[in-house]
Each structure stands twice: as structure tokens, then as C-alpha cells.
Amino acid sequence: MSTATLSPTAPAKAPSASPYRVTFGHLLRAEWIKLWTVRSTIWTLAMTVVVMVGLVAAVAGVMSTQIDDAPTGAEAVDLGLTPFLPAVQMASIAVVVLGVLAISGEYTTGMIRSSVAAAPRRTPVLWSKLAVLTATILVVAAVAVALGYAVAYLFLSRIDLAPELSDPQVLRVLGGCALYLATIAAFAFAIGALLRHSAAALATILALLLVVENVVAAIPWEPLQYVSPFLPATAGSKITQTDMTVDMVNSMSEHGANLTAWQGYGVLVAWVVVLLGVAAVLMKRRDV
């Protein structure tokens, strides 16, 4: 009688760890690809450049034909940078749309589920989206401002009103235009992250920037006069204005805070930080 012997089986090997790790750099690359594969990105950024350059050219062209006796000194600098004020305000609408769609579009299509599945901590997804969006808009806005300056210089040099880059105030205003557009886009991004619905977010932010702030500034009620200087666009747009314009706006408010250009921009940044902080907390707690 023979007995069968069983040879010992080798223990199963544990599956090897995946060589791929979800790092913040990988998230940035993923968000970069997603941003540029959506048609709305191309259209809104192109519209930003067209509106900026077109309005600067239009205003500067009218000024070159209507002004015969150009002022000098601070008044000349203020007047020479005037074409950028309406241009930035109109271009901000385009970047606001992109800022909202950059986050709310994923909730609409359901792609946000894939994003948070790849990065379960969730908040790195939010920060990577914000970083790609603001960096892109900052670069595009800087190009638009540079082109606008070149066009304005061609028109305004005929009447000795062309702003000179050797003036620190000119550099501050031109750089401030690009900073304002990038930051107001981040503000719109934060609203979109809070509401998670494109139409609702766009209606909210456009109503705030275009209607509510103007109405609050126009109503001569003392409590509103204290609030008005601290509203996002009212405060943040000071970085796009010359010192003379900032002083003139401050003098028109008897009870409001006399914010400088950089202080006003700081208020806008504070709005963005607070809203993004709330959005980050809600993103971790909400069901996707």
C-alpha cells in the first residue's frame, strides 16, 4: 500500500504595487488637457483678446481725433490709460464665463466622478483646476494687455498721450489689468465650485458684478456706502486704475473706506480665498 505525498505549494505572490502614483503634477497635467479639449476655452480666451484689443483701439482712436490740447503730468498718464478701463471691464465677462465653466462643466457632464475617483482626497483636484485656470488666463491677459498697449501707443502718440513704460504707475496699471482678469476668473471659479451649476453660477456672478455693485454704489444710504468699497469688482478693479482715478473715486464716497489700488486688490483676493475655503470644505463633505 502506497501513500500519496503532496508537494508543498508555493505561497501566492502579493500583487506588485502599481508604479503609477497620482501626484499633484499629474493632476495639473490632467486639468491642462481637460481645459484645452473644451471648445469654450478657445472661444472665451479668443474673445478676451479680441475685446481687450478692440476696445482699446476704439477708445484710443476716438481720443486721437477728439483731443487737440493734450494735458501734461499726472493728467496725461491718467488720460493715456483711459482706454484700458472699459476694455478690462468687458473682457472680465469672458474670463468669468470660463472660470465658471472650468468647474461647473464637470458637474454637468458627470466627469467630476472620474476626477475624484482618481484623487480621493478631492481638494487637490480643486487646487489643480484653479492653478491651471488662473495661470492660463494670466498669460492670455498679459498678451492681450501687451497688444492693447501697442495699439494704444500707435494712436495716442499722435497727440502726445502715449503712456510710457518707464513710468512705474503705467506698469502697475497694465500689470494690474492682467492680475485683475486672472483673479476675477478665480472668483468666478469659486462661485462655480460652490453652486455646481453653470447657469446658476453665471447668473449669480454676473448679477453681482454688473448689477448689484452698481446699484449699491448708486444708492445714497449710509450702510451701503460702507459696504460698497469692499465688494469684489469695486475693490479689485482699483488695481487697473491710476492713482488719480483712485483718489477721485475715493473722494466721491463720504463714508466709504479710502482703499489704495493694492488694498483694493487685496480685498478681491480675500474674497477668493474665503470662497475657495468654503468650496473646499463642501467638496469634501458633499456627495459627488
The share of residues in helices is over 70%
- Rounded to the nearest angstrom, the radius of gyration is 25 Å
Number of strands: 0
The mean pLDDT is: 87
Largest sheet: none
**Strand-residue proportion:** under 5%
The structural class is mainly alpha
First-residue to last-residue Cα separation: 67 Å
Number of helices: 12
Task: Give the SSE order as H and E letters.
Answer: HHHHHHHHHHHH
Number of domains: 1
* Global geometry: globular
Uncertain segments: 14-18
GO molecular function, one term: ABC-type transporter activity
Keywords: Membrane, Transmembrane, Transmembrane helix
Protein name: ABC transporter permease
Transmembrane segments: 42-64, 84-103, 130-153, 173-195, 202-221, 262-283
Quick structural overview:
With 288 residues, this protein is mainly α.
Topology, element by element:
Elements: H1 24-36, H2 39-66, H3 74-80, H4 84-109, H5 112-118, H6 123-156, H7 168-195, H8 198-218, H9 222-227, H10 232-236, H11 243-252, H12 261-285
Describe this structure in words.
- This is ABC transporter permease.
- One of its GO terms (molecular function) is ABC-type transporter activity.
- Keywords: Membrane, Transmembrane, Transmembrane helix.
- The chain crosses the membrane at residues 42-64, 84-103, 130-153, 173-195, 202-221, 262-283.
- The chain has 288 residues and is an all-alpha fold.
- The protein has one domain (24-285).
- 73% of the residues lie in helices and 0% in strands.
- It is built from twelve helices and no strands.
- α1 crosses α6 and α4 (84-109) packs parallel to α7.
- Residues 14-18 have low confidence and may be disordered.
